[in-house]
Amino acid sequence: xxxxxxxxxxxxxxxxxxxxxxxxxxxxxxxxxxxxxxxxxxxxxxxxxxxxxxxxxxxxxxxxxxxxxxxxxxxxxxxxxxxxxxxxxxxxxxxxxxxxxxxxxxxxx
Length: 109
Hints:
- By secondary structure, the protein is α+β, with helices and mostly antiparallel strands.
- The chain has one domain (2-108).
- Helix content is 36%, strand content 26%.
- It has helices at residues 16-31, 75-84, 96-108, and strands at residues 2-6, 10-14, 36-41, 50-55, 61-64, 91-92.
- It has a 3-stranded antiparallel beta sheet with strand order 2-1-5. Strands 4-3-6 form a 3-stranded mixed beta sheet.
- A hairpin with a 3-residue loop joins strand 1 and strand 2 (10-14).
- Helix 1 (16-31) packs across helix 2 and helix 2 (75-84) crosses helix 3 (96-108).
- The chain starts with a strand and ends with a helix.
């Protein structure tokens, strides 16, 4: 389990594979000097509720991984995260399976 560290002070646990994809999607936005919300729903074991962070090039982010191996990246997942980041709600962190379903529905309709 890795961590997304926001503003060098608050740590959010994120699975390493998810964190690797999030790092690429967020990096693409921040490289273009774009600011946006990143949001997700906490599972019951983490107290439920939702978290929304305002991400901006001016706010430090650290992606800390627990494992030493870089996972193979799923381009579809990265593309969907990037696409979601352009919506009024911002980047909603979804699972790899949800991203695959989203992409399949988008292609079909």
